[in-house]
């Protein structure tokens, strides 16, 4: 089947997602600069940006955004990078995403809904919804 990836390619992709989770900004940015698709998505629909935001790595978030990562993408559960950054209470990542144009009302649940559900007034303030 032509859409199947070989074991080496799959291992490389898994390693790239691990770099996003770990906040290995330099290495991940270098891979993107060398041709790795900045919007690479795993089987659950998580992009590198969503994973970096969820694991509270604002430097990695900023580096991916600077390289064209799409902050409008949602994973298979409807979650966005901004919603993930709000959930993890990462003000630096939230600011980077907002500065890039991320919509606090996008996603299901949206970043605003996440902040309200978990009673995060500091995140609502950042989102302009205090």
Describe the structure.
With 130 residues, this protein is an all-alpha fold. It has 8 helices and no strands. It has helices spanning 7-22, 25-33, 48-54, 58-66, 81-87, 91-99, 111-117, 121-126. Helix 4 (58-66) packs parallel to helix 6. The radius of gyration is 15 Å and the shape is globular. The N and C termini lie far apart (52 Å).
CATH architecture, by name, is Alpha Horseshoe
| CATH level 3 topology | Serine Threonine Protein Phosphatase 5, Tetratricopeptide repeat
Structural class: mainly alpha
**Uncertain segments of ≥5 residues (pLDDT<50)?**
none
Report the major sheet.
Answer: none
- Helix content class: 40-55%
Q: What's the alpha carbon Rg, rounded to whole Å?
A: 15 Å
- Can you identify the CATH class? Mainly Alpha
Terminal-residue CA separation = 52 Å
Number of strands: 0
Averaged pLDDT: 96
> Can you tell me the overall shape?
globular
Number of domains: 1
Strand content of the residues, in percent?
under 5%
Count of helical regions: 8
CATH homologous superfamily placement: Ankyrin repeat-containing domain
Order of helices and strands: HHHHHHHH
